Amino acid sequence: MARRKKVYEGKAKILYEGPEPGTLVQYFKDDATAFNAEKRATIDGKGVLNNRLSEYFMTGLNGIGVPTHFIRRINMREQLIRAVEIIPLEVVVRNVAAGSISKRLGIEEGTALPRPIVEFYYKDDALGDPLVSEEHIIAFGWATQQDLDDMISLALRVNDFLSGLMLGVNIKLVDFKIEIGRIWDGDFMRLIVADEISPDSCRLWDIDTGQKLDKDVFRRDLGDLADAYTEVAKRLGVMPNAPQGMTKPTLIN
């Protein structure tokens, strides 16, 4: 498929015009970023892994009735998606304390939470994607109360699906982030899961060893990020072997 006009470029993906109205082509880059892009590198093959893994998760969600923007994979780095109006919030579901919640509340990393906790972060790189309350969201018009109820419901359904899937391959789903978009279905607006679901947007720990199999490997210099992502793909049966041509990370100054 020939690429169309570029619509948007983010840290890890590029969006192009799709072949039909209401569609986009999502291209997965090899770029890895952390700490609001203060740390950056190019990891050969990362985009291939994330494309295939996101396809796997989104297809599974569609199959159980959780609507997503995913239509089909085009090639090793691109997928066809529905164009949506992204709500400017990152929705985070936490099952185990790690990362910012441990720092913010002084909870030891690895502590199981009493129940899944849903948090909202305002999508603004310049502000560092700050944590916001439901009151902020409604007051500033980013979403309605009904939107928030639906977003929480979607996020918890995604959590149930991913938790079970990962448990089956001896991986603990510590937390994850999703984005949600609005689409029109006839005369009605509905919310669907958008962006991506991959080790870039999840914390994944081996149940037996606690080994990290997500972007914390890059954030904390714990080893080879491509190896970690490949291990997740292998366990899920998505890609039995690493993409051809993978090399060590190349740091970008």
List its salient traits.
alpha+beta; 253 residues; Phosphorylase Kinase, domain 1; disordered C terminus; 5-stranded antiparallel beta sheet; 7-stranded antiparallel beta sheet
Would you mind describing this structure in some detail?
This protein has 2 domains: 6-84 and 225-243, Phosphorylase Kinase, domain 1 (2-Layer Sandwich), CATH 3.30.200.20; 85-206, D-amino Acid Aminotransferase, Chain A, domain 1. It has 6 helices and 15 strands. It has helices at 46-63, 100-105, 134-139, 145-167, 216-219, 225-236, and strands at 6-9, 13-17, 23-28, 31-34, 39-42, 70-73, 78-82, 85-86, 89-96, 112-122, 131-132, 171-185, 188-194, 202-206, 250-251. The strands form 3 sheets. Strands 8, 9, 10, 11, 12, 13 and 14 form a 7-stranded antiparallel sheet that branches. Strands 1-2-3-7-6 form a 5-stranded antiparallel sheet, covered by helices on one side.
